[in-house]
Amino acid sequence: MWTLFEPLHGVTYFAPEAREHFEAVGLRGFWRGYFAGRAAPLGAVDAAPVIAAFFGFAPAMVRRALPDVWTRAAPDAVLAARQAGAVAALSRLLKAASTSDIGVAVDLLTEAAAHVDVGGRVLAAANVALPAPTEPTARLWHATTILREHRGDGHVAALVLWGLDGCEALVWRSSLDLSGDVLRAARGWTDDEWASAADRLRAKGWIDDDGRATTIAQDALRDIEAATDRAARRPWSALGARATERLIATLTPLAIAARSEIPDVNPIGLPRPRLSG
Asked: Where are the domains of the chain?
């Protein structure tokens, strides 16, 4: 399911409308918009809680953005900008979609998001606490954002349970299925930090001398993804199987349209959704 709601949330990172709205409130540069936009639900926080919540980012990269971004734009202004940018982007990308399909997707996503469990999930809780928008496209983005951060918080917990730190998690994934060059650059780790994380993984038996995943690392991928899915199950159990199937049918073409705005090679590791049948 995450591959269907993630693209609708993800326009806030990749669409030009999102960047334009962040720049309009004083956040010039991709990373200022990213860190301020994603952290704004927490308030004008310093780097420390964002380093913890965002997990995979190098602390030095986070500290370059925070708390500096709050001298450029207050959290309330950032929240308004990120919603306006997302709405503008989705309005363009979904212009060919039927109003009825969008309405069904909005209602079902909103219902699912109402059932997230926020205990231990800082980013999900912060987004749940925001005032719910009333405009349909804004509701669509808000609901996907809650569901996205809810699943992400659970994924971080699963990684921590397996004893991985932020850099190790990325080196591990690069040994399996994602580009190490893309991950290292996008998350701000230095070559020395990356090499040290690789050494720690070798010592634990997760990668071999050539940086390839061992059986331990491959098994961990299966178990961590399964744990992440279990932690994210409550909204979909509450929605029910029939409603979830209906949501998948209506959401898939919307996700395909939104996914077109996201580069094929991306640090999220987000595949392109496909129509069934």
From this structure: 2-159+227-259
